[in-house]
Predict the structure of LrgB family protein.
Amino acid sequence: MEAVNALGQALAASSVLWLSLTLCTYLAALALYRRAGANPLLLPVLTGTAVVVAVLLASGTDYRSYAEGVRPLSLLIGPATVALAVPLVRQWGRLRALWLPLLLALLVGGSVAIVSAVGIAWALGGSWETLASLAPKSATMPVAMPVAERAGGLASLTAVAVAITGIVGAVAAPPVMRLLRVHDPVVRGFASGLTAHAIGLARELPASPTAGAFAALAMGLNGIATTVLVPLILALWPLRG
């Protein structure tokens, strides 16, 4: 029994257990998502995250230990991000024709996302730390977390806000698009990438290469815009704590 306990503790302290749990949970969630006909309520990032969080809570494992265990996965973020340029290059002709409307949509959408998050938090009595943490919530997590920290926010709170924003955006996008009768994959993809970052991209890419390409474009451009707009908007905010 002592040997079994020692083995369990060794696995929990290594990356093997958490890497295996994360990958197996994602594959199972992806299979469920596809079997359910791509039901937005069963997004793998939503169901998979829920399972992992439940395991962490049940085992009493803190997030820092888990993050350290799955650190090897973070090494894949760079190559995966670069690979997103491949479908975008194939849309170069449409991109050149639409660069001005896309730029305006980026500036308006990015600004509204920041101002609305900060404004709602401020109206509810949130501290400056909370405001700074929520401001970059619509950017992808590798961008949002350092931006929030430099503004005086908490990276952990930002990570939660980014995840919730992406999940809600990916779930809400299909019915909203249908309600507004938006069928153009360029518009749908750019809107999803702008508001729901990587999760919106993951939702659009399997449905349409064009939508996926413009979702990737929006996610990347919004990351750049967020690094500029968040400090500017927070500096001009009338009641800084």
Summary: The chain has a mean pLDDT of 82. Residues 77-241 form one domain. The chain has two domains: 1-75, 77-241.
